[in-house]
Amino acid sequence: MAKTQKPSRSSLAVVELSVAIHHVFHAPVDKILWDVAEQTYAHKLLTGRRQIMQKLGEPNGHSVPAADFESEFDPFGAGHGCNSISAGLGMAVARDFKGKRDRVVAVINNETTMAGQVYEAMSNAGYLDSNMIVILNDSQHSLHPKLEEASKTPINALSKTLSKLQSSKLFRRFRELAKALTKKIGKGMYEWAAKVDEYARGMIGPPGSTLFEELGLYYIGPVDGHNIEDLVCVLNEVASLDSMGPVLVHVITKEELQVGDNQINAVANKIMEGASSSDTIPCGTRTYSDCFVEALISEAERHKDIVAVHAGMGMEPSLHLLKDVFAEKFFDVGMAEQHAVTFSAGLARGGLKPFCIIPSAFLQRAYDQVIHDVDRQKVPVRFIITSAGLVGSDGPIQCGPFDIAFMSCLPNMIVMAPSDEVELSHMVATAALIDDRPVCFRYPRGALSVTEQSFGSGIPIEVGQGRILAEGKDIALLGYGSMVQNCLRAQSVLSKLGVEVTVADARFCKPLDIKLLRNLCKNHSYLVTVEEGSIGGFASHVAQFLSLDGQLDAGIKWRPITLPDNYIEQASPKEQLAVAGLTGNHIAATALSLLGRTREALLLMC
């Protein structure tokens, strides 16, 4: 793990658990599913992918295709979390239909228990009563939602004995026999015995454990996740039970690394602190998130009703600062994006100004709430879409290419994107003043491209107004969001080739700056639009306007540059932009091709 320079805290916490699972269950015949990719590195090493993992530490190792990471040992993709129980239950039901006898194991963790889909899946698993095993990797040592108020779940001789007893075949058969006898005696006796059973198990289990019983899963635990013998003993018992229904094994782990070699320990600690890959932002470099936090804090001084709601997996360091400053005005709901959106709508209806901060890839899960609870009712929620576009070594799992398309198609939504940190501060100020409809803006992950200095409070922008950054007569480049900077780089390249370029910053995808578009079409014969988003986004709105306004009939030659219609695998940010065709040279080559200078365009790409 030290060689690969990948975040390893989560995977190191489940090394013993991964070994025990593969010792007891026989993958790939038995299906082993994981909720989050960060926990799967030990699993991948144990299933023949050590060489591929080591390539990640090489200079060009980030470009290892995702297909090489997947194998027959991965029956379902580990993505944002909360999908393993649902997928595992589907596989268990399919197994039962086909008359097979393989086991299904789903591993979840504390973060994913914040997501509603986990409980939907557990409830359905309890109802269907299909045989499957859910393993809860509890690194927080508590099932209590407020960790600061919770007592740690103890692991001692008594808890070990009780866990082994709960998982034993003899105890389970005795319990089933007792259920059958009380049913024969009468319904009242059966219900009384069930209450006694629930009360007794609640007394010996940790706080919160009876929730799983209520959902229909047989609870076993807590089990020491770093004791191989205990894990193997419990898992062997669970694996040997037929017609047992769904079972949840509560495993306690520690996200701490203890290595004898001090040098390895130092490297590993550096990894765990965040230096995870070559696209890691150097210490001291300001990011878009830093500037957003600075701007929002400044804006909150003028608008006392501003509150912040955050959802998603983990928080960026700058958002921790926002949490400290906002105190009770900051709400981190974890992996509960649907709740975050409707909660924000409720805050807005109550007279506050909520800024709902969600990474692009995670906002996808809350789209129904965005439509019905916010946009349809014109509730003024301000969506801050982070990690928009390409995200380097996190690849397609955390990539955010779709938000421009799925937010801009909503009738009441104002959609904008800043081209730099100054524009970001202006858009924070603009969003704070919009009280009659929802608004969103996106910004990418990573370092700033313009300045490293602090700036003052933002100045509100007129909604739907773009701007021209440079003027030329040969061709116009219309950039959206962070791609404006690459348009300026393309202009620099083209100017050396004698091409005079106009560069415009659209600012808004919806509403479009119609006056700006008409002027660009009037004064130029060629137009190129550039965005770090999927097909169907900003370029689609431009195409709609150009066609309906008759600009295409009038002779304007237009080319859109978007992300390609496929998922871009993990790589460094520069490599990903090159693959996507969004670098300054790619934009310049498109412009030259449009101007009929094909040979120069090809030479530019060599």
TrEMBL record:
Gene3D superfamilies in the record: 3.40.50.920, 3.40.50.970
Matching CDD domains: TPP_DXS (cd02007), TPP_PYR_DXS_TK_like (cd07033)
Domain of life the protein comes from: Eukaryota
Enzyme class: transferase
Transketolase-like pyrimidine-binding domain location: 286-450
Protein's pathway: Metabolic intermediate biosynthesis; 1-deoxy-D-xylulose 5-phosphate biosynthesis; 1-deoxy-D-xylulose 5-phosphate from D-glyceraldehyde 3-phosphate and pyruvate: step 1/1
Keywords: Isoprene biosynthesis, Magnesium, Metal-binding, Thiamine biosynthesis, Thiamine pyrophosphate, Transferase
Coiled-coil portions: none
Cofactor(s) needed: thiamine diphosphate; Mg(2+)
InterPro entries xref list: Dxylulose-5-P_synthase, THDP-binding, Transketo_C/PFOR_II, Transketolase-like_Pyr-bd, Transketolase_C
Pfam families, per the entry: DXP_synthase_N, Transket_pyr, Transketolase_C
Enzyme Commission code: 2.2.1.7
GO annotation, biological process: terpenoid biosynthetic process; thiamine biosynthetic process
GO molecular function ontology, one term from the record: metal ion binding
Subunit description: Homodimer.
PANTHER family reported in the protein's UniProt record: 1-D-DEOXYXYLULOSE 5-PHOSPHATE SYNTHASE-RELATED, 1-DEOXY-D-XYLULOSE-5-PHOSPHATE SYNTHASE
Family: Belongs to the transketolase family. DXPS subfamily.
Annotated NCBIfam families: dxs (TIGR00204)
Protein's name in the database: 1-deoxy-D-xylulose-5-phosphate synthase
Annotated source species: Anisodus tanguticus
